[in-house]
């Protein structure tokens, strides 16, 4: 028990990789065995996360359950893991979504072993980013997450997968260059990569001090480093105009890949903003908060508009991710401008909750797209029509999940969007007002999707013969039920998660 | 149990019904409607108990029933939400509970419970009738049961839940939650017959139009919350400091104070939800939904929610005269605007739709001029008689459909059709030869459907403001009296004209539908509807007659003072300062008598002789086409929105510009790589490597001929070498 | 006594003639003759230096005698090789024995 408590985070982090290694030695033809092994193995980190959630004390400041393993002593980088309210929420989301994504992948029958292994490695990569408090470890896990995703898209994706996977990988990696340089800068300056120490020391440097023997002031360096960090995370979130990889990657990825990509990988970028950018660069963030807010609102509005203009169902949902993550950044920008005020705290609460909520609703929506794609082999909205008659259960689930995406009060999306609006209205009034345009078009595209898929005269093509649509089956319902339950619970009673987030935000900022 | 607990419980039965029906009892129709109607009855019972208790509390405005709990944390504090019943809430709860209950009951009959399944019915389309053969072998076509019967009750349950949440809320946030849930349900219910493209589009139109209002309202809520730190009505309105601050803080928008701006933003939500001009376009299209839905949405609940919210926020709005002017203008304009369109509509439901818009305009106008009690009064009376009228129209349509099916059945059985192969077992539903909702196809229905006729007449007279015995008279008169008494002349005249037109088109409707002789065969075969539909009509008619008597002004000639103006005293006490009733004047009373009776008379006079639409002089195209607003909005907003999202944002910005930049980076990098390879790698680096190899080979090749195999030449070469080296050593390297 | 240089001249002349014969004669046996001449020229050189520098030492004589022996042996081997080559290739012209070429 004591081992469990002291090494809880390492267990959560590495059990997926261990499971992947176990799967390596299983015979490749035993698809069912491999799938179930992967799924059950992914439930272990989830169970541990729930245990972590229960044991976590939200009233304490700083990190809990810290462990530190010696790693690169020569450059003072260790594998230093820890959670606080912010990362705990994300860890819970990750370990919650991965089993569902694996369950959703049960219909993959091509190279199942490699697929499952890649997925589990991906889980470790994502968890590592959230758990790492050492910058070099953070970066390594950040990059590690890219490789399995690349292969998942490239090998099991749709028609345009080569282009999409390459774009995703190169673009994200390119953005991370600045991040790497920045991290190296810290390592050189402070002889350590530990985040807490770096934050403390970095903020003590006067902006007028010069760097080494040059005449470049730290003010300039901080600004450049700020933008380097911002670009790296902006590509991941994604923020307009760095978002164009997302529609391609999400659309071409296999269903479970899209679920994880939208559900969690995007949150890595937002997490980076909250964990690194805001604490390390408070003055720059405040100074440039208008620019950030502009980009956020651009993401909200243009994401919604682009989504509305789509004819491909999956691409419509992909652009909706741009739209929803824009709200996260709007909250972050508001918090950057007015650090420490109640409005900033509320905006941050909304932003973090929106990260969690979007993870749930995006994963759900992508899965539902996958369900219909599997049966019809097309994502073209004009080819559907009136399917509510044939598949009413699917239709009901689709409407429910869409309403969460739309931000219907009573479901989770509304709480987070309302908190962001409330928090950023006093701070960034005009931007918030413009963001409402995006909120309006959110309704437009959601209704467009429902209208084209479910409503209207029944497209007889799907009603009989070999194309006859089958209703959503038990396994697929089982994937959606936990998502829908959480969506409803958070919408009606958000206190269980908002309390943790709120306390963390108050203590961090 | 305590009233507070009861308040928390009242919204629960309908939402539980929703979940139970959706998840469990979907296939069982009887169980579903029992759960649905039972839930509505339970909530009604709870509401009546609360209302009774509320009546007994002295000074309910100062000590309302309320209860709160912590919902989510914000910073160091918690945001609280809760339930509240003050006088306004109690009065509204009363009518909401009754109308919802009646509509649930009505739906059982409306959707033809007990009838057989239709011949060609399919989920997503309205039922088209079933052929039954009686014992003589005659085939009749009878109305068939709605295929998605259970789903309807589930959605109605969710809708009822939304309305209860809205009415019982003590704060703007949960009010908004109820507001939006009703928006969702109106979308689901207007698009109930989703297989019809018109219904599907109408649902989207309703949702999106109200959403325009909703996003502004959200801003207003956020603004209010950030300015005062709370959204609870009592906390804001009873706090003089807050009210003062809101009234005096200036905003950069149009010179409004904070209160004015917040009020305006919230009011825009009402413009959307209560279908005021310019966001009125969704409500007539919403007639695509089944009639109980129209009654629910457009009379009892949803549009009333918009007015209710403005009445609730009245203390805030009244702080800024500019906002009040906007409110009054929108209301007045909408009242007359919609009335002009109603005169030219032929569909029985559309007349009522525009009538609703117009009457809501009356209420909004009343609020705009500060007539708090009058607005609330008209809200409640309107709910009763409009619900009655809608349900009545549904009954009429039902009766007409009976006739339509009867006529179709005759056609199908007639010699020229019987036995013909293309008609036997054809998959298409039978053609509707006439529109059962067109009033010009009706006529003389008073003989066929007496209960419907009398209740509809009562409702119509209430709408027109028939003096003394209908509620509409009392509430409308009070609005006019307030307008006159406080000197709002423009409002007074416009509303009076609108009232005249209201009476005119209402009598037009009654005359065309019920009076005279049937104009079509279908109308001849119309039938009265079952008790599940006529009992709600009678209950609502009762209230349409009697409710007005609770609000008789004190100075009314003759009757005033006999019974106290209970309504004014009760609801007026919701506000901190009870509004004064206007001083009595004969002008508004005579005006309202004149317009009501005049309108009714002229309507009857003209239309008793009109046989078809061609003879109707009021069928002016611009009125029939609703002043072309739909077309204008399509041109100004919808088409540009499509273009903007499909072409500008997606094709141009994202694909051409941003991806273009990325692709050019990619191409540039590729080009750079190719150039480096071509010019540096291949030529220099590779070349160097190759040079070493080839060079050696060439040198070797070159030197090869030296190997002649002839010993003497070798020796000669050796000799020469010795001489040369020796020379070098001796002469050049000697030192 | 005649000067040493006369003997050296003689030796050099003989050596050159021998060298010329080695390099320029076609017949392999003539080349051998040339080699013999060179060896004898060396002998003359050695003997001259012995006689004129230190006659009491026997180093020069010994060296000369060894050269005699080596020359004899070498001629024997060389003639044997030439005869072997002749038997295979039917020629003793040096230029025609050019198998070890490119």
Describe what you observe in this structure.
By secondary structure, chain A is mainly α. Chain A has a domain at 288-509. Chain A is built from 21 helices and two strands. A two-stranded antiparallel ribbon of chain A has the order 1-2. The longest helix of chain A is centred in the C-terminal third of the chain and has 35 residues, at 342-376. The mean pLDDT of chain A is 91. Chain B is built from 28 helices and four strands. Chain C has helices at 4-24, 28-53, 59-89. The model of chain C has no long low-confidence stretch (mean pLDDT 92). Classes of the chains: A mainly alpha (509), B mainly alpha (735), C mainly alpha (102). Chains in contact: A-B, B-C. At the A-B interface, α8, α14, α16, α17 and α18 of A face β1, α6, α7 and α27 of B.
Radius of gyration of chain A, in angstroms, nearest whole number? 22 Å
Q: SSE order of chain C, as H and E?
A: HHH
Query: How confident is the prediction overall: mean pLDDT of chain C?
Result: 92
> What is the number of beta strands of chain A?
2
- What is the end-to-end distance of chain C? 55 Å
Number of strands of chain C: 0
- From the 3D structure, determine the CATH topology of chain C: Helix Hairpins
Low-pLDDT regions of chain C = none
Please estimate the helix content of chain C. over 70%
Q: Please state how the strands of the largest beta sheet of chain A are arranged side by side.
A: 1-2
